[in-house]
């Protein structure tokens, strides 16, 4: 709890058994009220380890993708009363010790969204980010800043904090279930006028840390450019992408989206997630 706000950390997990414990043990539990992990049909024992650690654990019966995992995480967090939700990858690539700082920036009232930036400072290359990824990150960010009218150091970090108001307002069900969902969320936040802040975050690239390969990175980059272009065209009144429409049926539902009436939510976008027996 921070200034009366309930803080929740969500962990979108896929085959994270080697790094989950280390990540979880560095989460400042004196401040964080709730930790939620959604296992995206991992082939390892990620869900079982999460249970043993006492994490509130959900598991997709089939892999729904990184974006689909986040939708489950955010909906569950809202349903459990979160005021501020921090998404942290359980692969120990980002420092969990920055959760209080990121949450504080939202509690201050100055920001609605906070990004843990690997680009601010010198942390990215020092932490082992491949040079080609660094160059691609900087190039895509330049284009996005121009098209979205923002001035961010990067759009591609997986370390993000959101206020409850943002998660309830954005039409997240219109977003992809793949990696580009991250980028679409930021474009949606910019579209709705939410204030986006950044904090410098060290990063670690090592064998066990998750990282998409070159082919998937190219697909992601194309998706990023498409998202930014759709944003600009929509601003000019030349397109009406669903991800920028302000429609209630495209928003996450709480407190319990899993019991929503049939047909009230697109099953392809918001997967049924089973609570793992014995999870807290």
**CATH topology label:** Spore Coat Polysaccharide Biosynthesis Protein SpsA, Chain A
CATH class: Alpha Beta
How much of the residues is beta strand, in percent?
A: 5-15%
Helix count, DSSP H or I runs of 4 or more residues:
9
Give me the Rg, rounded: 18 Å
Main beta sheet, described? Answer: 8 strands, mixed
Distance from first to last alpha carbon? 18 Å
State the total count of DSSP E strands.
Answer: 8
Q: Give the integer mean of the pLDDT values.
A: 89
The neighbouring-strand order within the major sheet is 7-5-6-4-1-2-3-8
Low-confidence stretches: 257-272
Topology as a string of helices (H) and strands (E):
EHEHEHEHEHHEHHEHE
Structural class: alpha/beta
Helix content estimate:
25-40%
- The assigned CATH architecture is Alpha-Beta Complex
Overall structural domain count: 1
Oligomer: single chain
How would you describe this structure to a colleague?
This protein has 280 residues and is an alpha/beta fold. It contains nine helices and eight strands. The radius of gyration is 18 Å and the shape is globular. Strands 7-5-6-4-1-2-3-8 form an eight-stranded mixed sheet, with helices on both faces. It has one domain (7-250): Spore Coat Polysaccharide Biosynthesis Protein SpsA, Chain A. The chain has helices spanning 20-25, 46-52, 65-79, 99-107, 123-126, 131-148, 164-169, 181-191, 214-235, and strands spanning 7-13, 34-39, 56-60, 84-87, 113-117, 160-163, 196-200, 273-275. Residues 257-272 have low confidence and may be disordered. Helix 6 runs parallel beside helix 9 and helix 8 runs parallel beside helix 9.
């Amino acid at each position: 709890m921070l200034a009366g706000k309930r803080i929740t950390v969500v962990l979108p997990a896929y085959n994270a058994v080697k790094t989950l414990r280390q990540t979880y043990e560095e989460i400042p539990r004196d401040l964080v009220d709730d930790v939620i992990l959604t296992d995206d049909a991992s082939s390892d024992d990620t869900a079982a380890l999460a249970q043993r650690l006492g994490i509130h654990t959900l598991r997709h019966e089939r892999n729904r993708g990184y974006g689909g995992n986040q939708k489950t995480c955010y909906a569950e967090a809202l349903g459990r009363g979160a005021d501020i939700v921090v998404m942290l990858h359980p692969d120990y690539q980002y420092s969990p010790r920055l959760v209080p700082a990121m949450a504080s920036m939202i509690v201050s009232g100055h920001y609605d969204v906070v990004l843990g930036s690997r680009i601010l400072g010198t942390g990215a290359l020092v932490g082992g980010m491949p040079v080609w990824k660094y160059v691609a990150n900087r190039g895509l960010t330049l284009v996005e800043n121009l098209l979205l009218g923002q001035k961010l150091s990067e759009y591609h970090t997986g370390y993000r904090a959101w206020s409850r108001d943002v998660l309830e307002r954005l039409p997240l069900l219109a977003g992809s279930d793949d990696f580009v969902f991250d980028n679409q969320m930021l474009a949606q936040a910019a579209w709705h006028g939410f204030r986006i802040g950044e904090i410098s975050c060290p990063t670690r690239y090592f064998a066990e840390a998750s990282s998409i390969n070159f082919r998937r990175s190219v697909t992601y980059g194309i998706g990023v450019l498409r998202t930014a272009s759709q944003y600009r065209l929509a601003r000019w009144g030349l397109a009406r992408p669903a991800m920028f429409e302000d429609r209630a049926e495209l928003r996450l539902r709480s407190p319990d989206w899993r019991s929503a009436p049939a047909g009230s939510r697109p099953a392809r976008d918001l997967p049924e997630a089973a609570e793992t027996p014995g999870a807290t």
